[in-house]
Amino acid sequence: MPELWDIYDENGDKTGRLHERGKPLQNGEYNLGVDVWITNGRGEFLISKRAPDKTLPDLWHTTGGCAVTGEDGLSAALRETLEELGIALSSANGCLFKRLRRPYWDDPGGFFSDVWLFRQDVDISAVVCQPEEISAAMWADKNAIKRMMDDGAFVSRKAYPYIDLYPYIDELFDFALHFESGG
Q1: Distances from the Cα of 156 to the Cα of 52, 56, 75, 153, angstroms
Q2: Which residues of 126-137 are buried (b: 16+ CB within 10 A; e: fewer)?
Q3: Are 41 and 60 spatial neighbours (Cβ–Cβ below 8 Å)?
Q4: Which pLDDT tens digit goes with each residue over 98-113?
Q5: Exposure string (b/e) for 155-177, b if CB count within 10 Å is 16 or more?
Q6: Which of 144, 139, 130 is nearest to 65 (CA)?
Q7: In degrees to the nearest 10, what's the CA dihedral of 84, 136, 167, 66?
Q8: How many other CB atoms are found less than 10 A from the CB of residue 120?
Q9: 4, 84 in Cβ contact below 8 A?
Q10: Mean pLDDT lowest for which of 3-7, 65-69, 74-78, 169-173?
C-alpha cells in the first residue's frame, strides 16, 4: 500500500488533497517533514548513521522523515523516532524549534520542515536501529557535530539548510541549553 501524505499550500494549511510518496508534487504543493533533535542532560545530541543502501549513505544525521496522512509534526516526530531508533519519546519532553518552508531539489513542489527538539535521556544501549534506515547511533556534543559537518561525515546542505548556516545551528544548540535548564 502506498504511503500517502497530506498536501499543504504555501501558507502551511492542509488543502484536503492527498499525495502518494514517490510521485512529484506540483508547483505550490507542499508536504510536511520533520527533523528530530534529541538532547540529553550532558548537552549531547543523539545522532544516527544512515544505512549504506539509503540516499546519502553512511552519513550521520538526526532522525526524521515525512508525516503521513493525518499526522501533525509532533506525531510524525514521535513515530519516526520509534520506527528508526526504537525510542518512545514523551511529547511532554519536546518543543517545536522552527518551521521552515523549503523547496524540493528534484521536483516543483516543496515541503515544510518542522524541526523538533526533545530533552530526554536515552541509554544508547537501548537504541534499536531499523536496519533499512539506520546502521548506528551515538551521542555527540555540538563541537563534534560541527567537526563532522566540516569533515563531510554529517548530512548537510540540501537535507539541513539551517545547519549550513552556522547561526541557525548555534541557535539550535543555544535553544537546547535553554530548553534543558527549563527556561
Answers
A1: 17, 10, 24, 9
A2: ebebeeebbbeb
A3: no
A4: 898 887 767 778 899 9
A5: bbeebbebbeeeebbeebbebbe
A6: 130
A7: -20
A8: 17
A9: no
A10: 169-173
In the chain, what percentage of residues exceed pLDDT 70? 85
Strand 14-20, strand 94-103: pairing: unpaired
pLDDT at 168: 57
Q: How far is CA 136 from CA 25, 38, 75, 95, 127, in A?
A: 32, 15, 24, 25, 9
Contacts 24+ apart (CB under 8 A), 79-83: 80/34, 80/36, 81/36, 81/38, 81/118, 83/130, 83/133
Cell numbers at 146, concatenated: 560541527
Lowest mean pLDDT among 9-23, 118-132, 144-158, 161-175: 161-175
Residue 158, amino acid: K
H-assigned helices in the chain: 73-85, 142-151, 161-164, 166-180
